[in-house]
Model the fold of this input.
Amino acid sequence: MTKFKAPNVYKGIAAAPGIAIRRAYLFKKAIEVINDENITDIDDAIHNFNEALEKSKSELAKVFSLAVDKLGEKRAALFEAQIMILDDPVLIEKITSRITEEKKNSEYIVNDEFSKYQDIMIASHEPYMKERSQDIEDIKNRIIRNIRKKKWKSRITEEVIVVSESLTPADTVLFSRMKVTGYITNFGGLTSHAAIVARSLDIPAVVGLHDATENISDSDDLIVDGFNGIVIVNPTEEQLTEYKTKLGKLDLLDIKLAKLRNKKAVTKDGKKIDLLANLDLVEELEYIIQHGAKGVGLMRTEQIFQEYETFPSEEQQTKVYKGFAEKLYPLPLTIRSFDIGGDKVLPVDVKEPNPMLGWRGIRFLIDNKELFKTQVRAVLRASTHKNVKFMIPMVSSFLEIEKTKILINECKEELSDEGHPYDNHIEIGIMIEVPSAALMIRDFASEVDFFSIGTNDLIQYMLAVDRGNEIVNNQYQEFHPSIIRTLSFIISEARKTNTKVTMCGEMAADFRAIPLLLGLGLESISLSPSAIPYAKSIIRDLDSNEISELAASCLKMKTEKEIHDTIDKFYFSNFGDTSYEFYTTTDQ
Amino acid sequence: MIEKDVNIINNAGLHTRPAATIVKIAAKYQSEFYILKDGMNINGKSIIGVMTLAAAKGSILKLTFEGDDEQEMAEEILDYFNRGFDEL
Done:
């Protein structure tokens, strides 16, 4: 953990927004000491073991049905294999006969037998086998706990913040029904199960704290700040007052935001801004509609690939895309083609010396034509309600757009021949995330229907800074004058050609960037669903002329610091108590 | 006894879902069914056993079937392998 400011403050990954102040509930799962006593009553031990299996089965059946509800059938399938283990004839026969022969406690035999399988998995070179061993650990501990006839510690009756090494899918699903007001874990990132469930249930969460379980004891008082990824252990009076004040304001803001739900995102002087959502997960769809998004500006599809563990077939993809499109109808769904490579997993084992400058995005897709066509056909087949758009990542040349369009037309012809309906006027857009594409906007405009600015990559390519490289990542500057000028160029060139432009990178969700971006003329942004109400409340307090002036002055500046200072000044002079206070302004 | 070598042909290899399906198919038959890989002989009716197999695309497994209904059992299981676990 990186500590800063006070010694009781820890920084992790902000996985789900919100603030919670509650007692810690340390959730430990490991069975510490295995009892290896000899036994005399073998029948009793076997009876106990069988009872424990039945009990575990009924517990897992509950988890399974809850998981189907909350996570969808695909992810829930994981629990089916766990249930099957409880019925494994070879395993159960072996354990039963060992209890009889060795006259040892059943928990000792269970632990020993399961561990043999885990050892094989851990010894494997495949990384997923280690995860599989964790699943086995989970089920082993469940059986042992039931042999001891102990209740799962997860019966939480008061409101607590759960602190754990990591949370298995089963835990997260079960916790979601109890009075858990926050999650803290040692491991995990934004896409871990705990984070996903926390976000979809609006429970603040901080993950990836490394040693949270060592620094936090049961019943410690905790503050979880899911906006900034901060955890405070046994807060001082001062810290507590600060956060209680924030919490009070947040409640007021919630009321204000709830009222905004059906209001439009318009500036004070009536300029309309489209707020779209970035969609990663099925669970977020409800949330998106609730938060008043005008559609989905970016649906990443790499996730579907990960969920299926292999490239999903055309039928599987069609089903997923169509399901989303129908749920959103009449709101638009922008599907981005598989953006593979770079820091994202490549399905084929290719070692590249510099993957960020390598075989990724559209380059990979054009070289893997069959795979690309499978996706294009699925997107087209999902477009029958005319609310689907298709977007291509990492475009850097005109030729790539031409090739893509030829391929899309091929797919259209095939589908027509096969009698599959589709939207013949489906909008095709490209991501602007490579500097060469930013410079070519005017030429590209004749070929595409819309542009979407991907700031994360654009910034890293423009400044030649790898965000993942700790030595240089302090030079990754969202507000570098060259970035602001490039954005201004993209937006004005797109406007000259009457082509729609939106932004879907992290910058679009940065409250400090919003006034500046809109001041540059951007009229549409796509951001994570939970950030939408905040963005809306900021936009409704802005004045078009003032933000145009802000943008004009920033375009003249030479350093990022000048731009930061100008924006800060702008906020101080224009805002009272609004959401921006919940995000710390200094870079941690 | 029937003995056959099979190739893993789907991209994701023998992951949890196909492992579960193989065991479910095997459970329908009386015959014994073993999977041999890297010197390990795994009982194909044991889900936890099959889950220990790290069989990526391109791996070759040796399958053996022995018993009264070995013919039918072998056919159904080999067919499932040859369909790439329905993931092609």
Observations:
- Residues 582-588 of chain A have pLDDT under 50 and may be disordered.
- Residues 42-71 of chain A form the longest helix (30 residues).
